[in-house]
Design brief:
Helix content: 10-25%
Number of helices: 4
Structural class: mainly beta
Radius of gyration: 18 Å
Number of strands: 18
Order of helices and strands: EEHEEHEEEEEEEEEEHEEEEH
CATH topology of the largest domain: Diaminopimelate Epimerase, Chain A, domain 1
Largest sheet: 18 strands, mixed
Distance between the termini: 16 Å
Shape: globular
CATH superfamily of the largest domain: Diaminopimelate Epimerase, Chain A, domain 1
CATH class of the largest domain: Alpha Beta
CATH architecture of the largest domain: Roll
Length: about 280
């Protein structure tokens, strides 16, 4: 059918996404549509949606500087600047479709153009750019306990709190309370981080617009940025970051961050026309 809507499902260390190829920008992607697709009981399920659109066919003002634009939406339909795990899955899709060179490609995002390449072991490396510290002292309240936090944009907003054990964050069924509120007017991702060894941390994260996720690429970079600047921290150029969904590696060189991790596509098909008609 001409009206068939193709969708795929993929993940990067358990941070999962619905992939929506829309090369010509023909679809009106609404918050209702995103929410329906990402619903884990009534849709395909995902932490977010990756719309694959040619920049020249997209009306987003930030869709420029590369052939393809990653139109990323959180599971609730809200926009996000970037997604470190998502862009690897996005790149994997382009490579599998023969639309990009695995040795290196540029992808436009709301956080700027990012360079992505496939490594020999099949993992993908993403140039994540610079971190920008959020001025002011922040704190995170969770499970009736307060922890000091460091604020950083990379480019999504993050509040990074170091804890003695990951279970200190509790069930994370609701968003941690971050104060003062004015530091993060657009909401914030919260990372709870444990220092395991030199150059090795583990992390849990609560993402704005989603909830607790099994991984967060921009959050891993933010956590490494904060970890490397703690008193007595390892000056290792590359850090291992363990998340509930697996392991990422983050390299910082002269203030520039690179995120390395897997990209997996698990399904490819079309939506049921009657189901899709509800939000078309």
């Amino acid at each position: 059918m001409a009206d068939d809507i193709r969708v795929l499902k993929g993940h990067g260390t358990g941070n999962d996404f619905v992939i929506l190829p829309d090369f010509d920008g023909a679809l009106d992607v609404t918050a209702q549509m995103v929410g329906s697709l990402c619903d884990r009981r009534f849709g395909l399920g995902g932490d977010g949606l990756l719309r694959v659109v040619r920049s020249e066919r997209c009306d987003d003002p930030q869709a420029q500087g590369a052939e393809f634009f990653m139109d990323y939406r959180n599971a609730d339909g809200s926009l996000a600047q970037m997604c470190g795990n998502g862009i690897r899955v996005f790149a994997r899709f382009l490579v599998d479709e023969g639309l990009a060179d695995p040795a290196g490609m540029e992808i436009a995002t709301r956080g700027g153009v990012r360079h992505v390449r496939r490594l020999r072991d099949g993992e993908y490396a993403v140039g994540m750019g610079e971190a920008r510290e959020v001025g002011g002292v922040a704190s995170v309240m969770v499970s009736n306990r307060s922890y000091p936090a460091v604020g950083v944009h990379l480019p999504n907003p993050h509040a990074v709190a170091f804890v003695g054990a990951l279970d200190a964050a509790g069930p994370l069924l609701s968003a941690p309370e971050v104060s003062p509120e004015h530091l993060f007017p657009e909401g914030v991702n919260v990372e709870f981080v444990v220092e395991v060894a030199a150059g090795h941390i583990e992390m849990r994260v609560h993402e704005r617009g989603v909830g607790e996720t099994w991984s967060c690429g921009t959050g891993a970079c933010a956590a490494v940025w904060a970890a490397r600047r703690r008193p007595g921290a390892s000056d290792s150029e590359i850090y291992r970051v363990d998340v509930p969904g697996g392991t990422l590696h983050v390299r910082e060189v002269e203030g520039q961050f690179e995120l390395i991790g897997p990209a997996v596509i698990v399904a490819d098909g079309v939506l049921d026309a009657e189901w899709a008609a509800a939000w078309r």
